[in-house]
Specification:
Strand content: 15-25%
Radius of gyration: 17 Å
Shape: globular
Structural class: alpha+beta
Order of helices and strands: EHEHEEHEEEEHH
Number of strands: 8
């Protein structure tokens, strides 16, 4: 079935990432249908994330999706992202290597345990959540948009914050607001005080870019 030209393919099979992207995007615009690889009638192979930086992997995901799109789906806008934690005490780890942090493919639970073990007894728990988006409109250049936020890594996971595919959602805390980072996203701009959501700003920039 042919899709609307203003459909957006968010290049992922990760349900947590899709849900968060869709929820935030819809705050700024409901003019686009947002789908994932799971909504296509054919399979697109996973992208080999061989980049050493978030921007490189975001671009690779878009290029991988474009390579396999068929028929009317070639008219889709494609958005790829790469995001993760850079933890100060660990010299920026895990960075782009979250899933392969210990050298092998890890589950959400293994990532959480591995992180907490590496930071056991550490006082400096400051971290930075970084997101890069690559946005591809058919027959146009790929735009790169990014955002970042500061917070800390908790000493134990907040189980109520667990969401499949997003292990750091249960660990990343914003001290100045006394909330988990994902809870801050749910606040109005007024209640966030001076705390600026880099991830949300980046998605707003995507909407502005598409609407120009």
């Amino acid at each position: 079935m042919a899709r609307e030209k203003h459909s957006i393919l968010f290049a992922t099979k990760n349900p947590g990432k899709l849900a968060e992207f869709k929820e935030t995007f819809n705050k700024f615009s409901t003019d686009y249908e947002i789908i994932s690889f799971c909504d296509l009638a054919y399979d697109i192979p996973d992208c080999d994330e061989t980049g050493t930086a978030f921007r490189e992997n975001a671009r690779l995901k878009v290029c991988n999706a474009r390579q396999y799109l068929r028929g009317a789906d070639k008219n889709l806008i494609v958005v790829g992202d790469d995001s993760g934690m850079r933890i100060s005490y660990l010299n920026g780890e895990p960075g782009v290597y979250t899933r392969r942090w210990n050298g092998s493919e890890m589950t959400d639970g293994e990532i959480i345990t591995y992180c907490l073990d590496k930071m056991r007894g550490v006082n400096d728990r400051s971290a930075e959540y970084v997101t890069y988006f690559a946005v591809s409109i058919p027959d146009d250049d790929i735009a790169i948009i990014n955002g970042e936020n500061r917070g800390i890594i908790l000493e134990r996971p907040r189980c109520s914050s667990l969401l499949p595919g997003l292990p750091f959602r249960a660990l990343f805390f914003v001290p100045e607001l006394n909330l988990m980072f994902h809870e801050v996203r749910e606040l109005s701009a007024e209640k966030r005080k001076d705390y600026i959501l880099g991830h949300e700003q980046a998605i707003q920039q995507i909407v502005n870019y598409l609407d120009k």
